[in-house]
Amino acid sequence: MNAQIRLLPILLWLFTFVGVNAQTAADHDPKAKAILDGVSAKTKTYSAVQIDFEYSMDNIKDDIHESQKGSLLLKGEQYKLEMSGTVIYCDGKKQWNHMLDEEEVQVTTPEYEEGALNPTNIFTIYEKGFKYQYVKEEVKNGKTLQLIKLFPEDADSKSYHTIKLYIDKAKKQIHSIVIVGKEGDNYTYKILKLTPNPPTTPSDFRFDSAKHPDVEVIDLD
What we know:
By secondary structure, the protein is mainly beta. It contains two helices and twelve strands. The chain has a single domain (17-213), classed as Lipoprotein localisation LolA/LolB/LppX (outer membrane lipoprotein receptor (LolB), chain A, Clam), CATH 2.50.20.
């Protein structure tokens, strides 16, 4: 599993004629930027965050629908991601992919593709490589959500064409992220719970081989 989870392909994509025109008319919509800056500013006041989320992939054409839950502990460039039988540790310099069933850990240097969602940029992805547009407000399950679309500037090199961000207006938090793929695969990441300032230690973000003596460690650098 890729650490970018592309958050894992860390976005939702819906390519319509209206979206194309909006991208040209408002490359950096000031209303959208104000909302996104508010989310980023609030998040930066936290020393760390714990996120429980639900991931789903849907392809209507091929009738494929999958979903699973995961968790992310994030502190700056450090994180611990648990999902799909894999635990990914990253201390900002090294990354350990612990595949539980295989009893194997792959050690690499973290690398992040520009324009792809990854654990470290979930709240700031819009700041580089995107045009963005405020779309509307809507109420879901009693929450007022603000919908903002992101369009990659280098669209030809991406497997998606649109990211849809739903922002909880009252909390100034991301509610969900939808990545709309060019081939009909749509990926949704819904934040089920966000806990600010959880206690952390450096060991939370590193694989400890002493605690897993039967796990094979493979250095891929």
